[in-house]
Amino acid sequence: MPVLEPIVELARGLWTTLRSMAEKPVTVQYPEQKRPVKPRFRGRHVLKRYDNGLEKCIGCALCAAACPADAIFVEASENTDEERYSPGDRYASTYEINMLRCIYCGFCEDACPTEAIVLGDNYELSFTDRREAIYPKEMLLEPVPAGGAPTPQKTEPGKFTRSVPEMKDPAD
Amino acid sequence: MMAHLLLRHRDIPDIGKLDVYRKNGGFEAFKKAVTQMKPQEVIEVVKASGLRGRGGAGFPTGVKWSFVPNNIWPHYVVANADESEPGTFKDREIMESNPFQFLEGVAIAAYAVGANAAYIYLRGEFWPVAAHLDEKIAEMEKAALLGDKLFGTDYSLRIYTHLGAGAYICGEETALLESIEGKRGQPRIRPPFPAVYGLYGKPTVVNNVETLTNVPLIVEKGADWYKSLGTADSAGVKIFSLSGHVKKPGNYELPFGTTFRQLIYEYGGGVLDDRPVKAIMAAGASSAVIVADDKALDTPMDYASVKALGADLGSASVIVINDSVSMDWVINKTIHFFKHESCGKCTPCRDGTYWMLHLIERIERGEEVEANTQLLHTVAKQMQNKCLCPLGEFSTMAVTTAIERFPQDFRG
Amino acid sequence: MTKTVTLTIDDQQVTVPEGTLIVNAAKMVGIDIPVFCYHPKMEPVGMCRQCLVEVGRPAIDRATGQPVLEDGKPKIQFGPKLETACTTPVSEGMVVLTHSEKARAAQKEILEFLLTSHPLDCPVCDKGGECPLQNLTLAYGPAESRFLYSEKHHAEKHVPLGDKIWLDRERCIQCGRCIRFQEIIAGDPVLSFYQRGRDTDIITHSDPPFDSIFSGNTTDICPVGALTTADFRFGARPWEMKAAASICSLCPVGCNLTFNTRREAKAGGKVVIKRAMPRQNEQVNEIWICDRGRFNWHYVEDPSRLTHPLVKKDGKLEKASWSAAIEAAGNQVKGNQVLVVASGRLSNEDLFNLKQLADGLGGEALLYDSLPGGELTTRYGVSAGTNLGDLGAGSAILVAAADLYHEAPIWYLRVKAAAERGANLVIVNPEATRLDKYAKKLVRCGKDEAAAKVRELAAELTAAENLVVFFGRTADRNLAEDCAALLQGREGRANNGLIGVWPRANDQGAWELGYKPVDPSTGSGQALAQAVKGKVVYLAAADPAGDDPQLAEALKGAKAVIVQELFPTKTASLADVVFPAQAFTERDGSYTSGERRVQRFYPATPPLGESRADFAIAAAVAAAAGLEVEGRSALLVMDKLAAAVPAFVGISYRKLAEVTEQWPIVGRGDLYYGGTTYENRQGLGVQLNVSTFKRSNVVRGRAL
To answer: Is residue C390 located within the same domain as residue C482?
Structure first.
């Protein structure tokens, strides 16, 4: 019947509304709640440390060379056994990533010969000033692991002579 | 048995004394050469005799002398008494016991190429031999057999000994010359060959001790007499340094063409413990390894026949290996030796011997023997034909031939 | 005419002079044969075996001595072994295969051997990115290692070979280029191999270690990162830096440099120079520079440099604006005779403008330099077409009163090489110098006898086809004149002439522009002290007060003192107005070398503070004094200069920037060949002709 037709349609629509009110919501209460990221998610960069606390980064600037957005700036200096930041002769005395430039492609991660730079899970990047978008080394470095010491460390001569560690599975 | 021609002290015990040597015809050949022959005639006689270098390469001696150009002066003669090949010990016996015949050979060679100075380059460990030779040279000078205006002619000659500092590579003639010049014992690029650009950049003849010891006999008795000894392609006699698993190791002066079987069983008294011969290394550590089957044992020892066996006669330092030894052990020894003696000048030898060493050590430890053996073989092949001097090439001879000819010894 | 040989390399026909090595013949037609130990500036040694190629020669019939023909063409016989292209000279009809399967396999295998003991720490290596080993490995090498890392040869990685050079023993591939450079080219055989086999190491046996003024060059020719400089250590990656062409400012040789620059956080975000590298100019420095040129440019970044104009107020120098300072200076010079005292630190353009200022105000322009004979070199100096590299047998070189090794090291290198090629080198000097051992004749005599000794040698020296005479440091007027007299009749002839070993880079330029020596008879400071009395003195790049307290006193008697300088010198402290000048690394300009070659330099870094170029300051002061002097750009000043000074006729910035192909080819794509890039795309400069216009005889009292 032509008169009832709109009412049926209306009821059908309302039914859909009522049904979804009873369903579990797909949204989360961000920022109180956070959704876990996928294993291969590429978020904010972290500069890794070895177990003893030494920085993995050796300041080779290959990440900067690989970066298609020119977001990374590295300056290297020389380690001594008195003041050691990383194994080998060289460490990054300046390490900056401009998060506004970064496109999170992960090329830096691929280029890194020591697996020092890793794109982490953190996606919460907001700035109120453009200058804040430049993350210095202190912000990027991960905390010193338990049992490790902060850098610079005073180390035994002749112990940390090699910059690039022997990789278990360098093909990965 | 024929009287010794080179190891004459075995027949005449006091031949090392100047008067005894002279009484037995000593220095007559030198005198004849200087007083009656032109240098060119001496070269022709030596050329006609078919004498070939006894140091290993077997290059015709007379031909080598004739390469010395007459527009660049002065000329030098250098006697290579480095004798550094493992398994070779013939030159030492000559120099210790029959020194004058050797020195006379040096003198005749010097006269033939117009040199007024000759050097004897001895390995560092031969310092007592050098002292011994110095005494003999002094005696010769006193007897006016060396010095100015010899035998009333205008020809003058002095002989000097020079000690090396303990490097195998200095047995290589250009490295030897560098060493005499006081530089690092490293081979030079050839060409130019020493006959044109030798000691101090001047034409130089470098001959092995044994080669030179033959020369007085040839000058004295003539080319035809010398040619009648030995075989068609290898004239004369040769001292075979026999070592390894034999009952009577030592130097044996035999005509070319003697078979391996004769040398090992007739002269060497047979194999130690009477076990069968497994392998023969005919030229010391630098040899290709010969599988000692009947055919090989009955091969006459001359340059061409040994070559046909896929090896070289070289300096004829025959190392006999019986069946108690596995070949991987043998090449472990040779690789260690060559790695230690590589001079480091050229890449394939410097890094190749280092790599081979690590591979053979892995094989010795039983790690992935088959894969590592194969890699070792490739690395050795990879070195071949690329090295600056023969040392690098020689270091691979035993390795490739042992792996190819004794595969059963390289199974895990 | 040298005999030529025609051969075929990879299907390309090549005709080259007899005796050319295969590797060079291939390079001439653009075929690259990989090398490590071979360097085009040195004799081959054939050590690295990297350049193995297949070589075939026409087969010769022994009976007839004629080539064997096959299908009407000569039959080519290939040897059983590959040959090293770096040691084998070409021969007629030769056929070379550089990229055949066999050759490529051998090249790959040799690279694999080299890499077995190389640490592959390219990420931390200063050579990484401009490394012949890296490049050749990518082009010719194996992709994967068959060698175990743990079995690699380990050696010291951190050896200070000298205070300027670091050695990494693990990276070294024992090519011996450094050893041969020191022995053969530098003549300082202070490096050598130690140990043997895989343990072969580079050592220095001089005390102090690696004692050579040319040591930095070994880091350039090193085909791996074994030798690196302490100065640049971890300074930057090569691809991060920009290049600016420049000319060394430290001596009159005029070596061509490239400054590599980078913006740096350590320097507060400024663009800074990271290193100086040689730039190829076969007629000046070839591909070498001395350690002074390589490391001593740091003065331009000294923190004490002047950044603002200063004007004296109440007896004290105070910071002022440019307009105030120019006005103050303009007021001082206007209507006064101005005495300009400038030094050879300035460029041609600066000196020209300063001279215009002096001339315009009826004053005088003096060059602050103690060595006499400047005007002699403008007449008897070497002229267009001169190349010390062409001198050899039949040439004579006199070095009088100069120690080239210390005063002008690259000239030492080139004179030594000429002597080794057979040039008759004669040295007249009071003390022993390093060059002595290459001299055919040595004359040791006191300063006063030198001129007489040179006269004695005249007959011998003038008999030579070409004659080049150097005079320096301890020369007096008489000696300079006697040296010039030797060259009479050779004016304007290539490869002949008089060269002053001046203390500064552009003294020659000042002489060419007509600057007067401080005192024509003695060149001493006495005369200057007299000259400044009561005058307005305009000092540029000269610090007489700092050099001589007597002059400091004398300057106090001047009417006014205006200074343009890099640093707050003693003289600047006495000035009424001080202008901050730009260093040569911050601006355009040109220098005239002792060999009278005008060469351009380009800005590498932005200028410091408010500093301005010397020519611009001079022009501004001139304008304030009512004169019209070009000051807008160095290029325009050069145009004016070329129009005004006969010797510079036809010279323009465009002309100075011209480049022709040079041998050996050591550009960016040829890293493996030279060891580093010596590329010169910014100009070879132009050598001045001896001015054709007649002057009165400069050498007085002698029949010329």
So the answer is: yes
